[in-house]
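Re: Re: ligand-bound prediction request (bumping)

Still looking for help on this. To restate: I need the protein modeled with FNR bound, output as structure tokens. Inputs repeated here so nobody has to scroll up.
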Amino acid sequence: TLLPSIGAISNLYDFEYLASHILSKQAWAYYSSAADDEVSLRENHSAYHRIFFKPKVLVDVSEIDLSTEFFGQKSDAPFYATAAALGKLGNPAEGEKDITRGVGQGSTKVPQMVSTLASCSIDEVMGARVSENQPIWFQLYVNSDRKITNDLVKHVEELGVKALFVTVDAPALGHREKDEKVKFSANQKESTNMLKEAKVDADADGASRALSKFIDPSLSWKDIIELKKLTKLPIIIKGVQRSEDVIKAAEIGCQGVVISNHGGRQLDFSRAPIEVLAESKPELEKRNLDKNFDIFIDGGVRRGTDILKALCLGAKGVGLGRPFIYANSCYGAAGVQRAVDILREELEMSMRLLGVTSVKDLNEDLLDLSALKYR
Ligand code: FNR
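Reply:
Sorry for the wait, this slipped through. Here it is.
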């Protein structure tokens, strides 16, 4: 297929449009699908449209600083490529390694969260880093064979990943009908070695169904406490969807949560993460639990202004899933780098127009939240 030159890509939607035309039927079904009627999928994004800005004028905005720190490590911008399985469905040769290369470029370095069920092993991803100080995080799916999980945690800690994101929103698999129509085989070359390691019989109707057999549905809070004993890595709970659970995670000593509904792929009609963030942050502050505890958010983020809104509401970092998957599938590392650059440019410009020069100066006073449900 003839793709336009990368300079012709003006926003993240362009990657999605191109991906919908060039991806295999299987890749498109797996990447784009969400649960049931895909209401949460759409709501994740459209909820951002209920928030407006209250810009400050006559501020010197000639210099904008997008940099931040995650777990004591510098990042050039406050967003990251979040975990996604099966990168080789869209980029058969390089899979997730091209995301690593794309987000690790000198002036644009941002973190990558690598899935337990990535096509490439975490060792391969670490080997693809552009520089040693490039931040890589690991997303953990817990297997019912705890030895597999414990060995994996020890291994990624030794490899030098900087944080462990434990996904908790997938004890059962959301019903993704598009995906279920395409057969998946664990032996396909795009598959992941974790299925074999866990001896999962994973030929199934749909890639999602195959992967979900890896995940232990009995996972509970006490397993998180056990995990804390096993590793010194910061533990962040990914997939939290109510303020009570945000508070619980802080109380048991986790380093953070990702407010997320798995990109609308799990429980349809779960609320938009930005709404849950608006609800949770004040509850956390009220209880003085917001020190040494970070809230991340993902789902439906497509513009610099989306990122800006989440940061104003107190998010430490903002994750994007499908946009990076599509950029990687269409253009490999160059596409991923372009996606990072677009987001940086959009975020920088919006901050200028908002009248704020540094990420740390963003706060809720800059937003009009009157159309938001939980305020
Ligand atoms: C995901 N997501 C995900 N999450 C996770 O913890 N482990 C995983 O292996 C995957 N795999 C995965 C594959 C694909 C194709 C998608 C689209 C998503 C969820 C992901 O980390 C994130 O929560 C959402 O993708 C965020 O929504 P957006 O940015 O895709 O709208």
